[in-house]
Amino acid sequence: MNNKTLIAAGLGVLSLGTLGVVGITSAATATDAPTSTTTQISSNPMRGGGKGDFGPSMGGGKHGGEFGGRGMFGPQDDATKAALEANDYNAFVKAWESNTNKPSDATAPTQEQFNKMVEGYKKQVVVEQALKDNNYDAYVQATTPTKEEFAQRVSEYTTRTAMKAAVDTKDYDAFVKAWESNTNKPSDATVPTQEQFNKMVARSEQ
Prior knowledge:
Number of strands: 0
Shape: globular
Helix content: 40-55%
Distance between the termini: 13 Å
Number of helices: 8
Strand content: under 5%
Radius of gyration: 16 Å
Order of helices and strands: HHHHHHHH
Mean pLDDT: 71
């Protein structure tokens, strides 16, 4: 797994809104089809830089999840799952800090991001139960986003696409413009610096 943000590889993996029970990993919102988890949270440009490149939702490839699957959390999975089930932020941070595989500049998810992870985890539990029960209606209800959630995904996708294009063309000004256009970034987010942007460019070329 790359040293990117939270939230497995590929645009098809779950965003922060749909965390799975094995390998909590990225800060987005809403619910997708049930697969292995990701959560783009820690240290991403939506929060002001760090290893995670394109904000708190579905990341992929070189710009994917810093907590991607068991590669990042591994033995911490059980502790993370327990913290989500108990809605215990302090326990979650403790489990997160015990992860020796996270990038050196990663920062712990905020309470706000953790709350979204808890919501997503609860939804994922419903999804898994629907699959076990072969309950199509329950599955559809759990996985269909609201209009508000869908609009947020569209906004995040548009922002992420523009940010990736800016990295590909090494255009910091365009990157900042795309970053600032995101209305869903955390309230305490700060614009990534030129140095952080340069690191993203360097990683994209690896």
